[in-house]
Amino acid sequence: MEIKLTGPVAVLAAVIIIALGAYAWYSPTLTVGKIRDAAQQGNTVALARYVDLPAVRRKLESAYSRRMLKDMQSRGTSALTPESIRTIADHLSSPEGLARILAGVVPDEAGELNGPEHALHRRFGGSRRFFLSAGSDGSQQGMTLEFKRSGLFGWTLTEIDLPF
To answer: Can you give the residue range of the structural domain that contains 150?
Structure first.
């Protein structure tokens, strides 16, 4: 049996394909909005649906551990300790910390979120990764949030890369 796409059937098929493509392109923005809302409401259950919290914490701990080692090598001392690094990672991956980060506030080297809000610039890394970069020009000067595809239209925040 041969199916011919002509007339209204062809138009309907084209509309469906275009709508699915537009939704796929816009779906990361929807996910970021859902994470923002969950973070602002302190809804940890919803956050866990959109954020891989263990992976984000590990990445933050790694960044601050590298910062501590750099300080130790250059100055012989560091204000960071393993305990303070865990505390910083927990704070930054908390609903309050994620809300500030998603507002474009880049954590400083002490883990504080007191800086200005930067615009977040989006870009895709193929069909399975999506990035938000905070900085004056969208470069990786500030920080980069990495999202990985979860299912057909879903996205999960998996990494926060810091500039140090």
So the answer is: 27-161
